[in-house]
Amino acid sequence: MANNWWEIQVLCDPALEDLVFLRVETFGCRGTASEMKGHSCLISAYLPQERAHLLDLAALSLLFRQDALCVNLPIPAVQWNLIEEEDWSSSWKQHWHPEEIGDRFVVNPAWLPIPETDRLVLQLDPGVAFGTGAHPTTQLCLEALEMRLGYEETHATIADIGCGSGILSIGAILLGAKQVYAVDTDPLAVKSTLRNRELNQIDESLLQTQLGSIEMIKQLSEEPVDGIVCNILAEVIIDLIPQMDAISKPSTWGIISGVLLDQAKPVADTLEQYGWVVATLWRRKDWCCFTIRRN
């Protein structure tokens, strides 16, 4: 069973794309991809077989239906199939191509040749971890990092909470960060970050990654960090905000994403409650990204 995957495919109105992405991410899917099929959007998501039963998939399908009815859009067509790990890997790779992000980055699938470019090439094999650069929240975070680190010499130390594939940690190192501490509560994400650190030939002393959360950051870092990046679900971010003070100093800044626009207010209110100021709020589609600083 461990080598089998659910392939969940949702054919929907393009206006539902962000809601579908949120649903499958919350459901625990590890890889997602989307493509246009005529006037519809086909979203493919992948989940280890042991993580869901048929009744769970049926409940997920019902949520897609309810979401569409709530916004008066056509009900999506949903199907799922069991595939072998090798087939999953092939399916995933067919959907993903090099992608330029911001002014500095190009995210390149590790199985493709390195492109000739003046941009910073971020080699990535996401494995079963979420985070390829295709999702708006990841793009917003990389662009925010670029604005923060990309135009002057930096010696910043950064905490990446919920590192996923390690894409933000590696991006920070490529932009000149002195040290990144990357943590995730999912062992598969830690494994993926280690793999991508190796692909990008980053010394392990520059990018340290461990299983855990803010408590692990405190163990890895001898002093508070200069910056915090966190691209996970809004509900988790709200729970983490009270703990961020433990790894912060008066000059610490942060980049927070994974938040839908209608979730922005509770996140902003919690940040303010615990001594953070929202400096900017960027949006892409229905998602947003906060850049924050200490009050």
Residue ranges: pLDDT <50 for 5 or more in a row?
Answer: none
Task: Count up the helices.
Answer: 9
SSE order: EHEEHEHEEEHEHEHEHEHEHEE
Tell me the strand percentage band: 25-35%
User: What would the principal axes of the Cα set say about the shape?
Assistant: globular
Cα radius of gyration in angstroms:
19 Å
Spatial order of strands in the largest sheet: 10-9-8-11-12-14-13
What does this structure look like?
The structure is a single chain. The protein is α/β, with parallel strands linked by helices and 295 residues long. The protein has helices spanning 17-27, 54-70, 85-94, 136-149, 167-174, 187-199, 214-220, 234-240, 264-273; strands at 4-12, 31-37, 40-48, 77-84, 99-101, 105-109, 120-124, 157-161, 179-184, 207-211, 227-231, 253-260, 276-284, 287-294. The strands form three sheets. It has a seven-stranded mixed sheet with strand order 10-9-8-11-12-14-13, with helices on both faces. It has a four-stranded antiparallel sheet with strand order 2-3-1-4. A hairpin with a 2-residue loop joins strand 13 and strand 14 (287-294). The longest helix has 17 residues, at 54-70. The radius of gyration is 19 Å and the shape is globular. It starts with a strand and ends with a strand. The model has no long low-confidence stretch (mean pLDDT 89).
Brief synopsis:
The chain is an alpha/beta fold and 295 residues long.
Notable traits:
single chain, 295 residues, alpha/beta, 7-stranded mixed beta sheet, 4-stranded antiparallel beta sheet, 14 strands
